[in-house]
Amino acid sequence: MTANRPAKERTRASLELLYAISRELAAQLDLREVLKRVLQLTMANVNAPSGSIIVLDERGEVSEGALAYGGEVNEHTAEQLTDTYERGLAGWVVEHREAVLISSTRDDPRWLRRPDQKSDGDSRSAISVPLIARDRVVGVLTLVHPQAKHFNEDDLALLKAIADQAGVAVETARLFTAIHERQRFTSTLQEIARAVSSTLEPAQVFDQVLEQLKRVIEYDSASIFLVDGDRMRLVAARGFQDEEALIGLAIPVASGHMGSGVLSTASPALAVDAQAEPGWVKLEALPESDLIRGWIGVPLVVRDQVVGLLNVDSRKVGAYGPKELDVVSAFAYHAATAVANAQLFAESQQRVESMVALAEAAGVVTATLNLDEVLQRILVQTTRSMQVEVACLALIDEASGGFEYRVAFGGDARRVINAQMPSDQGIAAHVIEKGEPLVVANAQAEPQWFREIDELTGVETELLACAPIRIQEKIIGVLEAMNPIQGEFLPAQLDLLAGIAGLAGTAIAHAQLFAETKAARERYAGLFEASIDPILITDLTGIITDTNERALDFVGYPHEKLIGRSVMTLHVPDPEGLPEPLDQLEPDQTLSYNGRVIHMEGRQVPVEVHLKRIDIERQPFLQWILRDITERLELDELRTDLTSMIFHDLRSPLGNIISSLEVLQMTLPKDDETLQSVLSIANRSSRRLSRLIDSLLDLGQLEAGQAVLNKTSASLKALIAEAVEEVHPVAEAKGLQLQFRLGKPDLPYVAMDVDMVRRIVINLLENATKYTRSGGRITITATTLDGEVSVSVTDTGLGIAPRDQKIIFSKFARLQHDGGPKGLGLGLAFCRLAVEAHGGRIRVESEEGKGSTFTFTLPL
Questions:
Q1: For tag attachment on the chain, is the N or C end more exposed, with fewer CB atoms within 10 Å?
Q2: pLDDT of 230-239, one tens digit each?
Q3: Residue 693: what are its φ and ψ, rounded to 5°?
Q4: Helix or strand or coil: residue 524?
């Protein structure tokens, strides 16, 4: 009974201790305070002068700890306990999830013996138990006493019981601390986001990012790279010897360095010792890269697109682990947005600057229309806007097909002007072939580079930007900019160069058009004043705006009284030949008619008016050419009177000749063939002369509208037969073949002047006979269609040129055939007037060398 009492008392004491520890630990949420109290309480109850407690995170890594010496607890000893956890007793306990009682640490291999310790010192006996919560080992509690076999099984049992309570308390405190730290980190990130977003100026944003990075992680150096095509460019750096000199450093993305992997995979990377990594690249431009050990590289990602790289460096091996990688990744998420906004701002600023530069260029370039000045201003504006050392403008030489440098700026530019470059050489040829602007990073390495330009300017070209100059869709030249002062061509600058080249094309086109217009105006003014005909220029309403000297002399008005006057007050127009209103004339349409000009003194002068709509400086005007036809009308009247007089005087003797020939033919012997043949020729010739006289007399009456038609209903078929019979002897003598195609045998009778229509057919047949070579064929055709009869005479003769077909039916019009027959030019004019007098139409269809077809119609 007395033996069991101490055991019961110990049990009661243990339970009271566990209850007290449970209450005390439950009241604590501060992890460090919990660890301290756990160590203090357990050490006091098992009489242990030293011990340790390790806390593990979800990954099983040491996150916190406490270490006690001589009864005093020391905090923040996680790093000191890591080695113990990884290689000592604590690690074994975690791995096997078992409590351990070691009577003598000297004899147990699980106890960590450090090389610098000759003996175990005070470590003689030890107890180590796992702290378990939610079925996970969350830590290890280890107590040590300097005497061997100090601890017994009761101590182990008590420590296990305490560990069950402590495990829950430690995990609860750890979670609370983690939540609190996460909230604090989130708040810090929000503050950082506000700080880096407080400005949109790229340089300030980049500097703020690296400044705020210090709040979440310690580093010796850090840098930001932005992706620029196939390269990444350093835009900000901290912790380097010459940070300003590093700005702009470009590294190919595909160079195989560790940053390349971060960019290509869009995933963060960690190096415990960068110098030992095979992908670590040492840069000559960055000597500090030899000192970097710990390294974190995190991509800057915006909308699933990698825009840059954030590097965090330490000169200490193992300085960074997964926890630091997570911190920097979270920081980079917020920094990426600020960097992207800064980039967008910079791009928008560049666009604004480009627009302003283009607007200034447009104002400067279009301020003159002199081509040489335009080209010079283009170059000055290019050099100023692009900030380059040299600029050149070359235009395509239409004659040679090569390039001619018309203007240059920078270096010894005067030597470049008028330099020639073959069309298949130079970067310019490539740009013209592709039709797109181009940047060449190393001109000297390009085999196409035209090196004579460097020799002429005295400047070695390193970087080159070239853009085509277009007029509409045609490329007329190139605009080149060399050696930017800032050391590179930004994308916005290439767009700016293309914009200036576009303005250049427009300005050059305007200057060329102005020069051409000026030259045309001068040529027109020379022709205008040198013309022997009076010329008036009016607007579309007929108000006179200009006149030549000949017109002033012709109408008798001084210049000041003529300008502003209506042209209708100066002449009597042909009402049928002049449109009303005048603006109905189409561009380049010409009208001709006869009228009379009213001289200032009141007399009227007959004129032939040629009216044409023209454009002067893109404005529509009317040009009136007044050709004096007084002499021509007098000659026409004299010729008409003379002709009428001659033929009237010939008609009576000719009638006597015809009657005498008929009497002779009746009285002379019929069997004398020679004599009869001579008489037949004389009869035909006299009849032909009679028809000519009748046609000439009828021609005058038909022109005056005074002809009297003796219409009778007659057979057209018989009339055609008579006409053929009249012409047949001449055709036969010439070796021509006459053919009839008169359609139906019952051609209808036609109301017509038989003698006049017979002469029409004979004239057409005689013309065909006259202009058809020996062995040819003449065909006469007659058909009826749509209430009219159509008669056609087709030959295989010389044919008529298109220009002559328009005038062939005019009076006195004669075709010019070398060695061909000559005529008076009255026959076809008579045919036209006679057919029109019957209400019909006449036309010609012909092709030179293949013959002609004359067709006339008569109404039924």
A1: N
A2: 888 888 898 8
A3: -65, -45
A4: helix
